[in-house]
Amino acid sequence: MVAVRAWSTTPEVAHIGLREAFPTLVRRPTGVLQGTRWLFTWLALLSLLFSLPGVVALASGDRGALLLAAGATVTLWGSWVYGFLRQRVPLGLEVLDAFAIAAFAFASRSPVAVMPLLFASIWLRTLYGCPWRSAARGVLYTATLLAVGVLSPLVREYATGPSILQDAGVVSIALLTLLVAGKLRDELRAHDWAIERDQVLTQTGVKLLSLSDPEDIRVLGWNTARNLLSITPGLRVVKVVRDGQRLRVGPSIGHFSSELPAELPGAVIDCAGPAEQARMGDVGPLDEAVGGILAWSCTALAEEDNAAWLLVGAPVRLSESMTMSVRGLMNQVNLALRNSDTNRQLLAQAKHDALTGLENRPSFTRKLATELNQSTSNALHLLFLDLDDFKDVNDQFGHRVGDSVLTEVAKRLRHHIRPQDIFARLDGDEFAVVLTGTTDDVAAAIAHRMIASLASPFTVDGQTVAVGASVGVVSASPGIDLDDLVHQADVAVNAAKVSGKGQVKVFSPGLLHSESSLDSFEHQLSQAASRGELVVHYQPIVSLTDLHCTGAEALVRWQHPERGLLFPGDFVALAESSNTILTMGAFVLRQACADAATWPKARRGVPLTVEVNVSARELENEHFVDSVLMSLKDSGLSPTCLVLELTESVVLESGAAMDRLETLAAHGIRIALDDFGTGYSSLVALRSLPISVVKLDASFVAGALRNPVDYIVVESTVHMSTKLGIKTIAEGVETPDQQQLLAQMGADAAQGYLYCRGLPVEQFLEWLETQSAS
């Protein structure tokens, strides 16, 4: 809680000794109200000083009158200074002031001489207290004035006698002064309270930025609310949580004349929809607990399980800004809680696969490294599992069914994994398991059981889907390097796939020294382009405005002489681990440019674009820019028709990315950021690179209809890109509901199985003709 200053204008004044407080009489304190009190105190003292010579002159020769005037002067001087130093004026002190003013009048031959003291005291004292004290003060000073007028003839002879009309005029002016001074006091106090509330909210906002634990956020918010109420007396705050048809009463702040009940009727909150749209209903039970009628308002709280609200009650005399500070605090807390929840989800996504909930590759690698460092025997085994024919599932049934199959595969495999083992989905249809405290035979037996668990077909949306798996098993020898262990497991699983479907292969050194299946596969891949085995398919990109095709993405395929048509997941990772990716990338780029140069116009005067993926190795190649420009020149394709797709990781891995992309963009070639939102620096990439297209990752598009976080990511990305003048393309669109949602959000275009899968160029042109005709 923010500490209250010694000279705070709040009710919770930190009292200090008179000795320590006395120097403040010389220096003007901070705070508008306190500074005004200091100024008025000095004006009152000067008024007393200027009035004294006249009394002395009138009472010349009258020792009793002089003593009475001296006593009244000392009393008023001490009373006014004491009130300022203590920052409070007890009622007894005001009565003493009234007697001193009356004594001053009796000591003077002219009661009119005390009028400056009377008004000085009214102005000064009204800056303290509350409205009822101002009313009592008016009665007291009116009585004082009338008493002086009635009693003064009985005490001594006056040069100027009392006048009823004159006294009535003074009383009316004094009452008006009380009203004006009271209004000034209230305005100055409200001003100081507003400053202190702003300071409290600002400091709390800074502290909230450093908090991530929801409980710490709630504790800070509640303590700040207490501090706000100490600054603004009269407010009441109650937390309520929906519990069935009733409202469970939580902690409260402020004075309640009777104890709050444990529950309130549900009718107190009028909430027929979301909690954020709730309004106050029957506030009778709340007013009964307060013992008066207050103006109540409610603010929804970010709770994990139940609808919850903070009820704020304020007297009618308090301004709206005072209650707004509490509601503003709750909005800050709610935002911090939502950010905390988002951060926790992002942390979970950073460690776990979003689809299956298993460990992801980075988390798996860290844990495997830890296990290797702690392992002192051959009791640690690594299993790599790769699904057989999974690409056929995606091609035949779509990625949505494929994702469901992967989820079910993970559930089945979990039954064979012990709690202490590490189970991860590395990528696509690849899984990995780390077994601790096992023998070679036990590890192989677990691998066979995992394969057997996938023998039964899966049923997804009424579709029967069958997949198998190949498993590579390797034992970690003491001191083995992490990369070597992973490489051995990779070699083993590739050997298992070559041996036939549904096989388990235990790694042996002979797999490395002989021309293993992996070596053979890699050699075949390096010759694929020269042998004419690489082909390019095209997946259309459709405008969400009118569903016209605006371009296509180039997708490489390998027509393997033995294994048939292979998709990028089967060979691109291997190509990227060697220089084969350079040959493959150059082939796809030249072929895509040559094909796109023959395509018809998307609309009159608007050519179709072709999008080509770029890898980190290609971007690092010093001849990459020349290769792109030469492909455009040879094909005759306009640079504006070529879009180069690259992922955020490609940019981060390539130190030369910025300069080369700037050069390409200067020639009119457009740059697309692929899989946007899956990395940690996507916004940095947007700011630093010449990006003109953002491609929303298919995982967010698939989850936008059911996951609020995915929905927010997609919506915010679309809105942000629109404001930046960047085109948005949603990947993996498979249902009309997804298309409708993306169109409502304002996305520019989409691609996915809802429109068409990747097609050979001849079939793509036929599809274009059919779409144009329809």
UniProtKB/TrEMBL annotation:
<dbReference type="InterPro" id="IPR052155">
    <property type="entry name" value="Biofilm_reg_signaling"/>
</dbReference>
<keyword id="KW-1133">Transmembrane helix</keyword>
<dbReference type="InterPro" id="IPR035919">
    <property type="entry name" value="EAL_sf"/>
</dbReference>
<dbReference type="Pfam" id="PF00990">
    <property type="entry name" value="GGDEF"/>
</dbReference>
<keyword id="KW-0472">Membrane</keyword>
<dbReference type="InterPro" id="IPR029787">
    <property type="entry name" value="Nucleotide_cyclase"/>
</dbReference>
<feature type="transmembrane region" description="Helical">
    <location>
        <begin position="66"/>
        <end position="86"/>
    </location>
</feature>
<dbReference type="InterPro" id="IPR000160">
    <property type="entry name" value="GGDEF_dom"/>
</dbReference>
<dbReference type="Pfam" id="PF00563">
    <property type="entry name" value="EAL"/>
</dbReference>
<dbReference type="InterPro" id="IPR043128">
    <property type="entry name" value="Rev_trsase/Diguanyl_cyclase"/>
</dbReference>
<keyword id="KW-0812">Transmembrane</keyword>
<feature type="domain" description="EAL">
    <location>
        <begin position="518"/>
        <end position="772"/>
    </location>
</feature>
<feature type="transmembrane region" description="Helical">
    <location>
        <begin position="98"/>
        <end position="124"/>
    </location>
</feature>
<protein>
    <recommendedName>
        <fullName>GGDEF-domain containing protein</fullName>
    </recommendedName>
</protein>
<feature type="transmembrane region" description="Helical">
    <location>
        <begin position="136"/>
        <end position="155"/>
    </location>
</feature>
<feature type="transmembrane region" description="Helical">
    <location>
        <begin position="39"/>
        <end position="59"/>
    </location>
</feature>
<dbReference type="InterPro" id="IPR001633">
    <property type="entry name" value="EAL_dom"/>
</dbReference>
<feature type="domain" description="GGDEF">
    <location>
        <begin position="378"/>
        <end position="509"/>
    </location>
</feature>
